[in-house]
Structures are given as C-alpha cells and as structure tokens.
Amino acid sequence: MIQLSIDGREISVPEGTMVVDAAAKLGIEIPVYCYHQALGPLGACRICLVEIEKMPKLQTACTTAVREGMVVHTGGPAVEKGRQGILEFLLINHPLDCPVCDKGGECFLQDYSFWYGSGKNRFEESKIQRQKDYPVSDYILLDQERCVLCQRCIRFLGEYVGEEQLMLEGRGVHTVVSTVEGQPAHSPYAGNVIDLCPVGALLSEPYHFKARPWNIEREETVCSVCPVGCASLVTGRDGHPVRLEGRPQPDLDDYGFLCDHGRFTYDFVNHPARLEQAFLDGKPASASAAVAAVGERLARVVEKSGGGAVAVLTGAVHTVEEEWALAQFARESIGTSRLAVLKPVAGDLPLPLLGTYADLAAATGVLLLGADPYEAVPVMHLKLRAARRAHPVAVWGLGDRVLTRSTLPGEDFVAEPGQVAARLGVVLGGEALDGRWAELRRGLLETERLVVLWDGADPAAAALLAALAGQRGERPTAVLPTHGPRNWLGAVRAGISAEHAAAARILEDAAEGRLEALILLAADPLRDFPDGDLAARALERVPAVYFAGWFAPEPRHALSAMLPTAAWAEVTGTYANMEGRLQVAHGAAAAPGQARPVRSLVTALARAMGHPLRLPDFDPFQDQDGDRIARPAKQPAESAGAPARPALPPGEWRVLTGDMVAVSHPPSEIAERTREPLPLRLHPHDADELGLGAPGGLIEVAQGERRFVAGARRDARIPAGRVFIPRGLADVPANRLDHGAGVKIALADPVREEVAAP
Amino acid sequence: MLSGFKAIANGLKTTLLMLKEPRDTIQYPEKRREYSPRFRGKHMLAQDEDGHELCVGCGLCEAVCPAHAIRVVAAGAPGSRPVSWTERYAVDYEVDLIRCIFCGMCEEACPTNAVRLTPFNELAAYSRLDMVADKEELLAPPVRN
Questions:
Q1: CB contact under 8 A, B74 and A99
Q2: ipTM rounded to 2 decimals
Q3: Where are the domains of chain B?
Q4: How close does chain A come to B126, measured CA to CA in Å?
C-alpha cells in the first residue's frame, strides 16, 4: 500500500493505482475523457491535469501512478489555467451545436466547459468540417466534428472486446475516428461505445433526437433479454422505453457493458405482436370479462375434479414477486401442486454449485461445457476476456462443436453429438485417456479455481459436475448456467420447481388426459420445451389452455384465453440472474392496453373463482444470503457416465443445438436490423458439397415427414456432418427433431433458382 | 346643514371637473391599449426569411419552464421538405397557456431565438383544450388589430 496526500487528505492505495482513481476513492472528481478503468491509462485528452509537488509541470492524473509520499493538488490557479487551456484546444474545431446534439445535458464536454472553460475561444479561423451522422453500424451514428479523440471507443473494441472495427485515420488536426476499411462495426458489443463516448460523437441511432435528460424517466433496471441480467438504466419517455444504457456497479467490479442484443431490444414492450388485448375463445374481450370467465371455468374444474386437474407452467420472465404471486395463486386458490418452470433444456444445475461473476473474474480455469458464451450470453464472453486480461486463465471448450474463438482462445475438445456428458464422464473416470484428454483431466482437476459455463443441455452432466466438484476437493468449483429463461432462479426463489422432470411430468399428464386445464404464464411449451412433440401432444389433449403474458404462443387457436400482463420496465420488482443474484428493476414505462401486473391478475382470477387470495408480504431478499438466493449446502456426489449412442446411417446429419441470443431475444423492431437471417450453421466442406454459396442461403432440413426451411451459413466451428440449429427458432424447431436420428439436408428450391440464374 | 350642502357641492365640483380630464379607461374591445413592445403575451415560433423554422427542438425551454407548460418532441428534419435550417426540428411543440405564467424564461433560454413572447394577450377560449397552443398555432402568431 502506498500513502499519499490529495488536496490535504491522506489515503493509502495499492501500488500501481493511478492518481485519478486514488482521488476518486476520496470522492474528489478529476475530469477525464480518455481514461476508463476498464481500458487503462492513455493520456490522450490531457484534461485531468493536476499539480504534484516536486514535479516541475502539471501532470496527467490518469497516467501518473501513485508514489509514496506524493502530494497532489487537484485544484488551484495553475491547474485551472491548465484545464482551461486544454478545453480551449478541444473546442477549437468543435461545432458547438449542443442544441441539436443528443448528448446535450449529459455531456462531459459541456459540464467541464462550464466548470473549467473560459467561456470564449480565441480561435477565429473557420472550423474544419467533417462527417456528421455517419453510420458506424446499424445502431451507431458518428459525428466526427464533435469527437475529442479520446479513443475510448477504439480501445474498447480493439483491446477489451478484441474486435478491431474502429480506428484513427489521418494526422494532426485531420485525425478522425473511422471504421476499419469502411466496414460497419458489427461487433455485438459495439453499442457500448455510445455509453463510453464522453461527448456527442457516438450516438445511438434508435435514440437519435428522441429525448433530453430532463424530460425522461431514467430508472435503474436489469436487462431482460438473457440470464446474465446486466445492470442497466432504462430511459422512459411518454410511457415508452426509448433507451437502455449500461449501469456500472463499482462494488461488484462491473463496468456496465452490455451487448447490442440487450441494448437495442427494449422496444419489445411496444412491439405490434405484444398482447395488449384480452381474448376469450379467440375473440377479443374486455380484460375483466375474460378474467371473470377464466376464473369461473377454473372454479368449475376445481369443483368437479379437484385442484390437481389444473397445472401451471411459467416461462419465468416476470419478476420474482410476480412468480411468487403466481405460486400462491396455484397453491392457495387452485390447490394444485403441479407448478413448474418451463426451461428450454433438460439439465438441472445442482444449486450448491452455483457460482458468481466474482468467481469467474478470479478463475484460473474455465470450462465451457456445451456453452458458447459469445452467442448465448454475450456479456459473459466479455467478463471472461476481462478475467484473462487480469491474469492467466486456461479455457477449455467441451461440446459438440468448437466453443472457443479467436477472441477467447483455448483448447477445444469436440465430442460426438449428444455425448458431451459422456465425454466428461470418461475424462473424470480417468481410464485410458490419450494425451489431450489426459491434459484436460489434469487441468480440470488441478486448476486452482474452476468455473464451468454450462448450457444445461445434457441432463447427465449435472451429476458429473457434482462429481467434478467432489474430485477437486478443497479447490473451489463454481458452475454458471447459461440457459434461460432469464429469471428461472427467481422462480426458484419464489418456490417454483425449475426441475426439468417437474415440467415434463405436467406435460405428460396433459398428454395422457389427466389435466383439464393448463395455465401458461409467458410460457411457450411448443417453442421452448426440449421435447417439442410431447408439448404438442399435451397442448392438443388439454381441454383448456389459458395463457397470460406478453407474446402469445402459436398456434393461438389452441388457447382458450389470452390475458395480457405488464412486462419488464412496466413494473418494479426483482429479477435473479444466472449467479442467483437478486437485482431490483424499476419501472419507467406504462403498461399498454389492458396489460396489468401478474399480481393484480391473479388476485382478480382468485376473486372470480370465489377464493379471494390474500397475498402476504413477500421479500425476495433473505437476510442470511444477502442479495443472492438461498442455496442448499454442498453434498458429495458420485461420478456417473452416460451411454454412447449408436452410430448413424451415412448421409444423415446430426443436429446440434445451442442458445443464440440473436435469435431468441424477444421480437423487437429495432433489433430486427441485426436479427440473424442465416441462423443455421454448416461446416464449410459440407456447405461446398451442398452447393451453398459463400454468403449462405436457404436450406431444407428434413426428418421423416417433417421438412423445415431456413437460412444457413458456413461456419468452420461446426464439425463436418452436423448442422447447428439454434434453440427457439420458429422456422426450424430443433425441439421437434429427434437429435439422435439424424436429418437430411438439401438446398431449398429458391437457392437453386438463384444459383441457376446467373 | 349648510356645511352639508357645501360638502356635496364640493364633491360635485370635483366630479364635474373630472369630466373634462382625459379618461383612464378605454372602451374595450372597440379601443385597445398600446403595450410596450417588451410585453410578454402569447408565444410564437419564429421562422427565418426562407420559411425555415428556427426551433431545433433542443428542449431547453421545456427544461427551464417553471410551470411545466411546454412540451417539445424533437425528430430528425425531413430531408425533402425544407422545414428546418438544420437536421433536427421540433415535430411537436405545445404550450399550455393556462399553466404558463408568462415569465419569459423560455425566450431567454432559446439558443436559436425561435420561441418569442408576442404582445398578444387576448387569451380566452371556451374549453381548456383550446388553451393548449400547438405548433401550427404558434407558427402563425396572431396580430392584434
């Protein structure tokens, strides 16, 4: 620790700390443009000048590391004159068009000009004119005139993300930020440069000219798109969300970086497909009439066949409080114990193993077990990269396709489809392993702190993960489940079972005619349940299916009633992310149409049933666990293996599946621009054999009588002879295909015609 | 009793003398008073000589308004229709004249000198809704006759 004095106050900070961070610890703000803790010192903007005793000139606080006995003055005439001069230089070519600039009112160039600027500029020549409103990507506009060349955007994409898509061009006063070779910055993390830009140079296109800091509601929220649950700020104007920004959480060492899938899908709450009107038997009805009718029908079923004839499945996207209200409704008013979370995967994480993002930041080894964080939970990829920047981290990918990538290098171990868990079992068993696999075993068992990112697809892996933790003994093992739904751990906190077997039992009961009514809260079994055929049979057999939620599942004619509920950003409540951390999200928008919070919906339903529901106070936060959900204590488990599957007849393709947030995010008109048009993936050799062109095209996936057509592109990370189909894809429902039986792939006709035409 | 008559005559004299004096009241609405050009009455949105709206929809008037009487909705200016001199304009601009206290802070805050308070003060309507001046109304400032 190093002792120094800043503005007469003593502080001791670790060696290597920059003066600007040491001052921040004392609550002293030193202005910065180019410096960002995540990106490190650069010293480009020179606004952070401070006076350090025994140094002849002013020093930049962001590049000067603390020294023992240093005496720093962050104010005073010399410092103010220095900052004033720097600001005058920065504003020489600045257009001063604050009234038309989106950043106006929340701009550091404005703020520091007011605090330190001179109020007039001695530069009288005409200003250099540059590109304005230049689209850097589908979402980002660049105004080169307003740029102060702090290079935060360039360094973020180049160093932090590892995708160099922005660069400096030109020399001297002609230096500008531009895209590399004129190609758009298509990184899924590019949107963060909007938050990082301290001035109005990089702006959000969907937010362009939309609002001002004084006419908005800017509330703390949690991103709703994937289970990472990134802390964010939602901006509401006139009852609609108009912007999502990252929210740094200094106490959790989180810089508040988001991915573009999360950042630009906030408009899903106002999407035309959003359920805003209640429907009863396929016809529009007033919400109160629909609720009364559903309540009466439920009451009749309960009276006739008992509460057990009704089952409740939740999609776990509502708040913990709402899930809890649903659980109370199911148990108290209906009197059923058939209540479960609908998960898109069959694996159940042993909760004692649940890790945290802090575990990931400290990990020495990371196993990607079936999960590709870049596509499924993009911000986890950034967190992994940040951990790697801090200290060496060994990354192993064990899945049915390549899981590491150039921005996250590591060792890849590709298993046969469906045999990921079996492979892990063999590795943990330790018999007769050849070189690479033996090294994987050694790495997994001997690395100091192991974190597993598990996609939850293979149920056999759960016991193996427990066994792995047991074999590692005292060395900490943490598992982070990357699968959805986004608030499934919150539903667990609310007392709803998230075990695959529980949901499967409900659907089996339904398919065998033991259920008379099924209530779906934002659940879409046909799309999400791993066994789509079972879900289809269940929905066909149940006499009445009542849906409440944001987007009604297809086919809608199968639903006896559809009741709209208030969505994310419209209610205040808590969500639990994949580390089981409860985070409070505030509302900033109004629920559209007849949508109402689940809590008021279930109380109304209960009243209509004649069993008024009393909801006692519920606090999702439990004293002994702080802001994480309670987890059972660790239990020793045994090692387990899985049987190998029979070989396939040649010429058939095996189906791989995984989460892809670019496909599974809710319908959004803004994010439609970057929705993956070619979601299926094939190995380049296979694509060549098929005759699939370099940009990709439509292919037909057939299994038995079933035929689906969707866009596909070539991807060397997919092993030959396999086709990757993301989960939740409407065009090709991977859960309706038998993954063990293989599929036939052919070019779809439109592509053949396209190929033939030239 | 005499002193009583004297007092009445005195009072009548003052009254009669006043008949010759110039009047302090005028016959409104037939006659109207001249106001100072700096009188703060109803708002207007100014245009330049080419007919471009000066307002860029920055929202500073909305921010500074102590009565929350102003609502501004900005948008990108349509490229084909030359309504604005720059790339941003106010697609919607409303002043609630019932809330307005005519302090003139909006005028003072406006960076483009677009919103101005005219001397027009004849603000009466049959419904409250009619007292909300929209953009169209503000672009065509009324003139007193």
A1: no
A2: 0.81
A3: 35-139
A4: 28
- Chain A residues with CB under 8 Å of B75 CB are 209
Q: Which residue among B62, B88, B112 places its CB closest to the CB of A209?
A: B88
Chain A residues with CB-CB distance to B88 below 8 A = 99-100, 209
- Answer whether B44's CB lies under 8 Å from B141's CB: yes
User: The domain A2-90: what is its CATH number?
Assistant: 3.10.20.740
- Chain A residues with CB under 8 Å of B74 CB are 209-210, 212
- The first and second tokens of residue A297, run together, are 């029908």
- DSSP bridge pairs for A222: A231
Per the CB < 8 A criterion, the answer to whether A655 and A743 are in contact is yes
For residue B132, the distance in angstroms to the closest alpha carbon of chain A comes to 18
Q: What architecture is the A278-344+487-614 domain classified under in CATH? A: 3-Layer(aba) Sandwich (3.40)
- Cα–Cα–Cα angle for A531, A532, A535, rounded to 5 degrees: 95
CATH 3.40.50.300 fits A122-270, yes or no: no
Which residues fall within 8 angstroms of residue A187, CB to CB, at 6 or more apart?
A: A157, A161, A163, A165
* Backbone φ and ψ of B79, nearest 5°: -70, -40
Class of domain A351-481 (CATH, top level): alpha beta
Cβ-based contacts of A98 with chain B (< 8 Å)? 58, 111
Architecture of the domain made up of B35-139: 2-Layer Sandwich (3.30)
Residue A673 distance to chain B (closest CA, Å): 19
Q: What fold, for A654-756?
A: Barwin-like endoglucanases (2.40.40)
Please give, rounded to a whole number of angstroms, the shortest distance from the CA of A100 to a CA of chain B: 6
Averaged in consecutive runs of 10 residues, what is the pLDDT profile of chain A (758 residues)?
A: 94 94 94 93 93 94 94 94 94 92 93 90 90 92 94 95 94 92 93 96 94 92 94 94 94 92 94 95 94 96 94 96 96 94 94 94 96 95 94 95 94 88 86 84 94 92 91 92 94 94 96 95 94 94 95 91 95 94 94 94 94 87 81 62 58 86 90 87 91 88 89 92 90 85 80 43
Q: Where are the domains of chain A?
A: 2-90, 122-270, 278-344+487-614, 351-481, 654-756
How many whole angstroms separate alpha carbon A594 and alpha carbon A287? 6
